[in-house]
Amino acid sequence: MSEKTPSTLHTALSLAASVVPVLPLRRGKVPFGNCPTCTGNACGGRPNMKTPGPCQCPGVCHAWAAATTDPAVLTSPAWTDAWRRAVAVAYHPGGAGLTVLDLDNADAISWARQTLPATRTVATTRGEHWIYRGAMTSHNAVRPGVDIKSTMSYTRYLGPGTGRLVDLPDAVRALAVKQPPAVRLAPRAISVPAGSGGGRCPHRTPVFLERGIAMAEQRITAARSAIHATVYRTFLAVLSTHGRCGCLTDAHVARLFTAARAMGESPRHCTDAWTNALTTLGL
To answer: Which of 2, 32, 72, 267 lies most in the core, judged by the most C-beta atoms within 10 Å?
Structure first.
């Protein structure tokens, strides 16, 4: 390589040598656009896209799907020109067998530190990237300020980071599990309307109810992964037993919400999980 070889290409070749597929980002930190032949996926796509096709375009086409570890491609004339115009290097996490948790603000970072196992961390302009070993489907906005970048996605390379890379935890995979659509609540929506029992459980004793709430609190507090899913399933279990007879009070619900909040759940996520459970049971 000549002395004029851009630093972005040096970085890209170094990453590619570590089997991390890379691509250049242009101004605005977005991928280069498709060439005229490939516009609108007229070429049929590339083998690693959702719609496989025969495209062998020598240019920097198809956004994340252009990412490669082949030094011959990276140093080809079309790509070299792109590197000269590039402002940054991006990589395809899923193609490297990685998942990047993009934490966009201080609240998201605080939640991750309380909920997830520590792993390799890279500072970003507004937050942090937490990188785990293992690939999964990419999802945006899985929590406030939290995106998942892995397969069929790209993320900007911001340096090697610090800390030891650990395996992708179930708690991150659980973030991508879709719950039933949330129904937005009225101000008093966390209450469960009293059933025919008039606030008194017709088939269980008060001791049974108290034990059930305490066990639900313990189940939430004991969770070490899949916190979001555990909270929803616990709410569902409580409502399936006591949601129709009218024995639950706002005080009981507040105890469950407090346990969930202690595990990092936001008030909105608690409310959504409760409403989703009500909807699922037809309450």
So the answer is: 32
